[in-house]
Amino acid sequence: MRPMQTSHVVPSADLEACLCAVEDRLSALANSLRERDTRAIELHSSELHRALAAAVQRFGHAARTGGVPPRLRHRFAAAGALVAAQRESLARATAALDRAIEVLLPDAAMEASVYSATGASERPPGTGCVQA
Q1: Cα–Cα distance between 90 and 95 in angstroms, integer?
Q2: Tens digits of residue pLDDT in 30-69
Q3: If we measure between CA atoms, which residue out of 52, 57, 42, 80 comes closest to residue 10?
Q4: How far is the C-alpha of 129 from the C-alpha of 124, rounded, in Å?
Q5: Do the beta carbons of residue 44 and residue 25 sit within 8 Å?
Q6: Which of 4, 8, 37, 121 would give a disulfide with 65, using CB separation of 3.0 to 4.6 Å?
Q7: Gap between the Cα atoms of 24 and 28, Å rounded
Q8: Are 7 and 65 in contact (CB under 8 A)?
Q9: For 1-39, how does the pLDDT look when each residue is reduced to its tens digit (9 = 90+)?
Q10: For residue 90, what pLDDT is reported?
Q11: Total H helices, total E strands in the chain
């Protein structure tokens, strides 16, 4: 049996720290979303993006050079599932907001689609007649 080369193996502690960073940023983003703090949401989503990119790079390297311990692999998969759940939740909230805007401001939705090339409205608002 051939011994594994240890010079390129990513230590478990390094993967653990990387994964903890992702989990911490996921938690911070979830709290910001709950509090509806737009500045914090922007900050934590950027931090999460950076942490995820680093984690994917580290875990990919570890998988190629010696493997990822099953415990960390499961935690990484769980973190990925949380990211997907938050993304889905935000998509549903955005769709609900769009529907509410259409209900509350129906003229705004209509006017957005009937502008001429100069940017002016093609028809005067409220005329109620059909132009042929």
Answers
A1: 9
A2: 999 899 898 999 999 999 999 999 999 999 999 999 888 9
A3: 57
A4: 10
A5: yes
A6: 8
A7: 6
A8: no
A9: 444 444 455 678 899 999 999 999 999 999 998 998 989
A10: 85
A11: 4, 0
